[in-house]
Amino acid sequence: MVRFLLYFQYIGTKYSGLAKNKNGNGVINVLQNAIQAVTPVEIMKLTTSCQTDSGVHALINTVHFDLDRLPHQGAFQPHVLVKAVNSKLKNEDIRVLKALLVPDSFHARHSALRRDYLYRIALGCQSPRAIPVFEQDRCCALQDEALDIVRMQEASRLFIGIKDFASFRNLRRDFKDLYTEREMYSIAIYNVGCNHSNPLWHHFPANQMLHFEFSARSYLYRQVRRLVSVLLEVGRGKLTVDDVDEMMRARDNTMIRTAPAPARGLYLKDVIYDEKDLIFNDEDPDDDR
């Protein structure tokens, strides 16, 4: 038996989220079925680096699983596994990017050093549908034509470092005694610029793309989307930097009256591991694989 780490991506629009569910329409349901289709030995469990909600996308996510082969079969080579699994996903919005053999001690979730998220917003849209068809459900469309990015950046610095994000807990899913301290490594907010040079946006010259990027080891449930919604209110002038500071200090999630930013604009951008944790030694004399 060997342990594989799979890097994969997906467009989350038609799935009920990443997690496996009874309806069979979670990303993991589909991915596990595809892996199972290329091996007769049952795959017991897929362990992901983190969860994403319905409608959220991933440029990269990861999953580890243990794969056994029948006695007469040789071990799967990583590139062969990638090709075989993708052949079972040709009608799905999921693609495996690469596979690695990793040590038995490796864990997709616990071994992760950092998870990066990207949130994409199209500004200057007359309606949510007034964007290229190729971008439908893949960014958040807002009527705002201009936001105070400098103020937003100033407010975002309040979130950097080890902070208590109790005010950003989800109202329904999180318990009052949930451990709410998280360390935010960085936040970047920037205007991607004019879309004239992007052929997908050629017929929408008035629109601008705004990106938010977040980097941390872990997050509260829907924390990124709630941070984006508050920062947008700062950009509109409806909240001040002092208001955000007061929210953080209050540790009261009822103070935030804006809904989380829509799921369709959010992407899991990357999952980072220590390269040493990925080294697979197939010459270990104690390894019975």
What this model shows, in words?
- This protein has about 290 residues and is an alpha+beta fold.
- About 20% of the residues lie in helices and about 30% in strands.
- The chain has five helices and ten strands; from the N terminus they run βαββαβββαβββααβ.
- Strands 1, 2, 3, 4, 5, 6, 7, 8, 9 and 10 form a ten-stranded mixed sheet that branches.
- It is globular and about 65 Å long.
- The protein starts with a strand and ends in a 16-residue tail after the last strand.
Question: Key features?
Answer:
28% strand; 10-stranded mixed β-sheet; globular; 5 helices; 289 residues; alpha+beta
Helix content: 10-25%
Round the mean pLDDT to the nearest integer and report it. Answer: 90
Assembly state? single chain
- How much of the sequence lies in strands comes to 25-35%
Please work out how many helical segments DSSP would assign.
5
Q: Which residue ranges are poorly predicted, with pLDDT under 50 across at least 5 consecutive positions? A: 284-289
Q: Helix/strand/pairing class, anyone?
A: alpha+beta
- Computed Rg: 21 Å
Summarize the helices and strands and which ones pair or pack.
Blueprint: E1 2-10, H1 27-36, E2 47-48, E3 57-67, H2 78-87, E4 94-102, E5 112-123, E6 140-141, H3 149-156, E7 161-164, E8 181-194, E9 208-216, H4 223-236, H5 241-250, E10 266-273
Parallel strand pairs: 3-10, 5-6
Antiparallel strand pairs: 1-3, 1-4, 2-3, 5-9, 5-10, 7-8, 8-9
Helix pairs in contact: 3-4, 3-5
